[in-house]
Every structure is written in C-alpha cells, then in structure tokens.
DNA sequence: AAACAACACAACCGCCTTACA
DNA sequence: ATGTAAGGCGGTTGTGTTGTT
C-alpha cells in the first residue's frame, strides 16, 4: 500500500514562490519558529503550499546566512573530495560548507563542477557503452545493446573516474598536489587525526589496521556507488571503461598497462563485493544512530591491488 | 531577428528514517 | 511491537536565461 500524500495536492500551489509568499513564511518563522510541524505551518499562515515545500523554501533560500553561487576554489575542492569519499550525500557535504545548502551543492555539482572535473566524455557514437546508465540502456544507434544489469551506474563511473584522477599526479585537486587535503586520510594511530569521520563519529574500538584510516576517502562506500556489479561487465564494456579511465588522459596518467589492469581488477573486485561486503553503520561519516553507513573496508580491502594503492597513497 | 540548444537553478517527487502514540 | 505521520534526503523535472547558429 502506498504512502498517503503529505498534503492535498489539489489545493496546494506549485511552482515558483512569489515575494509575498516568501515574506509571509519568513516573517512567521522568524517570529514563531517552525513550531515543529511543517505540515501545519502553511495553514497557520494562510499559504496554499505543501508543508514540505515551505520547509524547502525556508532551508534553501529564506533562512539567514545562506550563500548562493560564487563557489570558491576551496569549496570546489571540498565538494570534490567529499563526493569521491562519500558519494552524493549532499547533506553531509553541505554540513562541511557553512552557508551552503545541499540543494545548492547538488545543483552546482551536477551543472558545473562535475563537468569541470570530468570534462566532456567522448561522443556517444564512438561507443555504445558510453550510454552506461541511460534509462533505456540504448546504444549510439538507439538500439538497446545491453541489459540494465550490464551497465555501470553513472554515479559510480564518475566517482571511479574522479578517483583515478585524484590518484593521478596531474589533476589540480590531486592529493599529491594538495597535501592540505591529506589530513583527511590519516595513517593508523595518528594521534593528530582530526578527520571528518572523527568529528561526527567516534572511532570504532576494534577497528582493524586499515580501518583506522579514514577509509571513506577511498570512495565507493555508498550503496549508490555499488549499484551494479561489474562481474557482469562484458569485454567490450571493460575495454571501454579502461579506455575511459586511462586513454583519455593517458598523457598525464602515471601508470602503465600493468598498473592499469591491476587497478581495473581492484575496482572490479570492489564492485563485485557488493553482495557480500558488510554495510557498516559505524564506519562512515555519520553517527551511529543515523541510518547511513559505509561498506566495511575489511571486506573490500582484500585485493592486493587495493592494498598496494593504500600503501602508495598513504605512504605506509 | 528568430529558432534552437545548452545551461543553471528552483522546485517537486517519492522513498527511507525517525519519533511517537 | 506495531502503525502512522512527519522530517529528511537524493534524484529528477520544469522553467527561465543565455549562447549559438
């Protein structure tokens, strides 16, 4: 049975807010607060709006100290590194950027930052698998070449690619080029560690050696990033993935073929772990009472390639 | 100048979680 | 323990603006 709608859809106004509506909402909340009930609020002040809509309007635009646009380079870097670490958890990312809203960051990422970082992908005509997560799974000629189960989620792919760019030395946001970003990834036992993970979550007492690292920085810990098992990847998709990851920026990527293949295996292993990896609610960026979690690194870290990567990155 | 495409952003939708009776 | 309502979140869509042909 479906969930009942939060409001009477027939009697609520939709679309852009008028200045009058904004003024009403703002004035009421500034004087009385939200009253702990967004659903009832619009009725109290005579707004023909859904309570959810009021909440969104207040949180994203009307409440004090909201910043719009003008993202700084520093903010770009924070957003990028957090996106790679934790995926599209915009509320968590927004919490690290005072004055920014999750919606704002999400829009900024989707419309600008992502393009800035990833660049334009190859023209679709060159490879059907570049339509990786299109809803219909269509190839360049409009024919469905691959079943949905054989596609890689766009989100996962983006993070994959960004991760590789981070790993490479050429990218302006590289950890190597920006040691200031490295404190987010502390070696085991570092008493000075003040990572994001520790700000919001107590360390796991029995965490293993590798788990003491802020594993979220490795990425691919969110369910969204694990949407598709690459065990289903066919040879063509694998080739295309490699091509996408390496060839496009081959001039600046430091690895060679062996390394590339090892890394590909690492990601394949990681994706393949989806069904068996433990979802650990106390191993991510969230407090233990929250619903969010991360994939238990212990389950994903068995890959030699990954361990090598850890060793390489963290200088272990 | 008009038509079209691309972009940017605001808002909505629906699912999941949480609080509470 | 269970059901329900509300809050919160991420994905998606709609619409206005800007750029290009």
UniProtKB/TrEMBL annotation:
Comp. bias (Polar residues): 192-201
Keyword check for Membrane: no
GO molecular function, one term: DNA binding
UniProt keyword annotation of Transmembrane helix present: no
Subcellular location: Nucleus
GO cellular component assignments: nucleus
Ranges where the Myb-like domain occurs: 9-62, 63-113
Pfam families per record: Myb_DNA-binding
Domain spans labelled HTH myb-type: 9-62, 63-117
GO annotation (BP), single: cell differentiation
Residue span of region Disordered: 177-210
Domain of life per record: Eukaryota
Record keywords, A-Z: DNA-binding, Nucleus, Repeat, Transcription, Transcription regulation
This protein's name: (wild Malaysian banana) hypothetical protein
Species per Swiss-Prot/TrEMBL record: Musa acuminata subsp. malaccensis
């Amino acid at each position: 049975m479906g969930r009942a709608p939060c409001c009477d859809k027939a009697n609520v106004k939709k679309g852009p807010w008028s200045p009058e509506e904004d003024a009403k909402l703002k004035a009421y909340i500034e004087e009385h607060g939200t009253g702990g009930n967004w659903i009832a609020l619009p009725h109290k002040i005579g707004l023909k709006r859904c309570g959810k809509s009021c909440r969104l309007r207040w949180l994203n635009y009307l409440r004090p100290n909201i910043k719009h646009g003008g993202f700084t380079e520093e903010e770009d870097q924070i957003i990028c590194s957090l996106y790679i670490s934790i995926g599209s958890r915009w509320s968590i990312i927004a919490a690290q950027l005072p004055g920014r809203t999750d919606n704002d960051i999400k829009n900024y990422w989707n419309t600008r930052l992502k393009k800035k970082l990833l660049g334009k992908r190859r023209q679709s005509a060159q490879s059907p698998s570049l339509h990786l997560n299109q809803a219909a799974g269509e190839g360049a000629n409009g024919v469905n070449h691959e079943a949905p189960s054989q596609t890689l989620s766009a989100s996962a792919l983006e993070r994959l690619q960004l991760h590789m760019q981070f790993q490479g030395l050429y990218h302006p946001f590289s950890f190597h080029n920006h040691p200031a970003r490295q404190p987010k990834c502390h070696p085991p036992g570092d008493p000075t560690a003040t990572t994001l993970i520790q700000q919001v979550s107590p360390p796991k007492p029995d965490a293993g050696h590798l788990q003491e690292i802020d594993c979220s920085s490795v990425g691919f810990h969110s369910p969204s990033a694990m949407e598709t098992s690459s065990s289903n990847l066919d040879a063509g998709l694998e080739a295309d993935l490699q091509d996408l990851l390496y060839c496009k920026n081959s001039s600046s990527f430091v690895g060679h073929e062996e390394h590339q293949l090892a890394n590909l295996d690492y990601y394949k292993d990681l994706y393949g772990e989806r069904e068996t990896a433990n979802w650990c609610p106390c191993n991510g960026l969230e407090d233990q009472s929250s619903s969010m979690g991360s994939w238990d690194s212990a389950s994903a870290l068995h890959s030699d390639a990954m361990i090598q990567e850890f060793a390489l990155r963290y200088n272990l």
